[in-house]
Design a protein that fits this description.
single chain, 389 residues, 2 domains, four-stranded antiparallel β-sheet, 15 strands, 19% strand, elongated, disordered N terminus
């Protein structure tokens, strides 16, 4: 046991600690990291081992998982593979970790989420290891039970102190000496890219065997090119292996955004209708305003103004009206975009585009509403206008 603590501390000294990192499964690293989580090369194999009863028929799940990962990693075009207990979205069980010899933590500090993964999971998903070591083949049900915590969970439990070598447990003392923390990884948005990264503790699935729901595979090229080979390899391991679907990880993420996509579509429809009604109303107001000034324009022509001068006058007044409405609207839109960013995931660029498009539509509507009626007073006969006056 003391050797494992020393191993964790030694590895921690070899790897430079990088704090403040978060990984966004949507393809971005947040915080100080400038790397990218390459989601485009990850293939997700969804399996149903629990409801089909497959797990109950296989008492030695760790051996099955090792066979699966070794077979997949030996395939051409596959870099790494790993198993995972849960799947996106809403990944992880609710759990609590109590620190050995560390009293005084609040209920919020000890609570987080838990997931069981196989060795190589973090490399497969592109989650950086900040301190310590990854799970390995030496972590078995006969060795000391180990755990790896995310950066946010480590900060909750230990503050700025390194979590490597600390003991934790599911219950307060004297049952807080169950798991040895051997690693710290960057935060990951496992509940979906639209949610903040939760505090997470990862357990080695070989030490606490559970039916897996996902097999994550990192391919060297397009992951869809190896989907058929993966299905065949798993069928060779066991023809009854319960594969439900094999999809790119990007598709897995997008499936978890169904509510957000529906909300975005509904909002887009209402925004489009609002913009159309606004453009029609603006056109009508400007056209009526210009038509009512027909006699004024005729008098200006009789007094020596040119037809071009009349048209420029009308356009200049319309531009002033547009600026009076568009400029405050742009400031209000900027505030609305910041608000929508917390409601509609990934909508910042789309909202900015919508603001630009809406501004262009209103400018065109105002210009047409001015130019078309302005042609009539420009063609009017000054003598007829004076007679009518």
């Amino acid at each position: 046991m003391s050797d494992q603590i020393a191993e964790g501390l030694t590895n921690s000294g070899r790897i430079r600690a990088r704090t403040g990192h978060r990984v966004n499964f949507s393809g971005r690293h947040l915080g100080n990291s400038r790397c990218r989580t390459d989601r485009e090369h990850v293939l997700s194999v969804r399996v149903d081992m629990r409801r089909t009863g497959y797990a109950a028929r296989h008492p030695n799940l760790p051996a099955l998982y090792r066979d699966i990962t070794q077979r997949l990693e030996a395939m051409p075009g596959v870099q790494t593979a790993a198993v995972e207990m849960c799947s996106l979205p809403d990944c992880g069980w609710n759990t609590a970790l109590y620190v050995f010899g560390g009293g005084g933590l609040s209920n919020a500090q000890v609570h987080g989420k838990e997931d069981h993964v196989g060795a190589g999971f973090f490399a497969t998903m592109g989650i950086p290891l900040l301190r310590g070591r990854d799970f390995s083949g030496t972590d078995t049900d006969k060795s000391q039970t180990v755990a790896i915590v995310s950066h946010s969970y480590a900060r909750q439990l230990f503050g700025n102190e390194s979590p490597i070598g600390h003991w934790v447990g599911y219950e307060p003392a004297p049952h807080d000496h169950e798991f040895l923390i051997v690693g710290e990884i960057a935060d990951a948005r496992v509940d979906g890219p639209q949610f903040e990264a939760p505090p997470l503790v990862y357990m080695d699935i070989d030490q606490a065997p559970n039916p897996v729901q996902m097999i994550q595979v990192r391919a060297a090229g397009d992951p869809r090119d190896v989907a058929g080979q993966i299905r065949q390899a798993l069928s060779e391991i066991d023809p009854d292996f319960p594969i439900t679907e094999i999809v790119p990880f990007t598709t897995e993420l997008n499936d978890g955004l169904g509510t957000e996509k529906l909300l975005a579509r509904v909002a887009s429809v209402y925004a489009g209708l609002t913009l159309l009604l606004l453009a029609i109303g603006f056109y009508g107001v400007m056209a009526s305003r210009t038509a009512r000034r027909k006699n004024e324009f005729g008098i200006r022509l009789a007094l020596g103004a040119s037809r071009r001068h009349i048209q420029v006058l009308i356009l200049g007044q319309t531009v002033c009206i547009l600026l009076a409405g568009v400029v405050p609207g742009l400031f209000l839109s900027a505030g609305a975009i910041r608000l929508a960013r917390h409601v509609l995931y990934g909508s910042t660029s789309a909202n900015s585009l919508a603001v630009v498009a809406g501004t262009i539509v209103l400018v065109l509507a105002g210009s047409l509403a001015t130019l078309i009626p302005a042609r009539r007073p420009g063609m009017a006969d000054p003598l007829e206008t004076l007679r009518s006056e």
